[in-house]
Amino acid sequence: MSQQPSGWYDDPSNPEMLRYWDGVMWTSHTAPKKSPTLPQSSGQPPQAASSDATGAAATQGVPTSTTPMPQGSGWQGQAPQAYGQGQAPGQYGQQGQYGQAPQYPGAPPSAAWMQTIKTTADGVPLASWGRRLAAWIIDGVILTILSYLMLRAFAPDYFTTIENLIDAASRQDQTEIQSIAQDVAGQAFRVGLITWGTVTVYCLAFWTTLAQTPGKMAVGISVRRVDRPGPLDIVSALRRRLLSLLQIVPLVSGLYFIVFLLDYLWPLWDDKRQALHDKVGGTQVVVGKQPRGQG
């Protein structure tokens, strides 16, 4: 039997909503048919091939593309069942279980706006670049403060060296400037390692427990594996931080700004809205929280 392609279709239990079909079974992800920000469309949902067949199906309480699931059955109390689990091909279970995709090619014209929403393979909407940027700014402020405190604790001489460099520059003492600049360069690796470690501990602590840093919490997004929901496992979380190691590698750290810029702009044109560090880690950033205990 040919399977219906994954996508947004009429929700069998609610004519006002769409439900995401993942190519095998119905998911729990729904959305309104009409965009709340667009004027109502005059498009009509596709009509059933036979009015007699539709009438018969409605009489028997079986949902069709134009007849919603009767209230009080199906989705209200039980999740959908995949085809082949105790039901014949093309039939619906008595408890509203669905094993077969809707028999029409796509969402109705009035819901065409839904086709522009990018989702994960199992139908969860992906976070927009704007939300990701807002989360990054919030986390950036927090991490700047934390990194400063860590450097004060573990590399206090670095700040003394910077103060001496500023003082020598104000006196225009070129010899001393060159000497102090060499000291700053010598401390760069240690400073970079402390900063990278601070950011990594911060990220791993939140990614592997809540799947949300404070910045992501504030804007309502979270990070998950591409192939499954839930907080990240420790290996995926570490892989997601590998790209940032370039900032402390000698002879390469000077190019890190270019990599950093490309990394955070990449979701603007990527089909899966992944940044480069998402591709390395096998992750995606989605709207909403992650279920606990599935990482």
UniProtKB/TrEMBL annotation:
Domain DUF2510: 7-37
Superkingdom per UniProt: Bacteria
Sequence segments annotated as region (Disordered): 28-110
A Pfam family it matches: RDD
Key words of the record: Cell membrane, Membrane, Transmembrane, Transmembrane helix
Protein's cellular compartments: Cell membrane
Biased composition (Low complexity): 39-61, 76-104
Transmembrane segments: 133-151, 188-207, 242-266
Mode of membrane association: Multi-pass membrane protein
UniProt domain RDD: residue ranges: 126-281
InterPro entries reported for this sequence: DUF2510, Pra-immunoreactive, RDD
Gene Ontology CC entries for this record: plasma membrane
Protein name stated in the entry: Putative RDD family membrane protein YckC
Classification lineage: Bacteria, Bacillati, Actinomycetota, Actinomycetes, Micrococcales
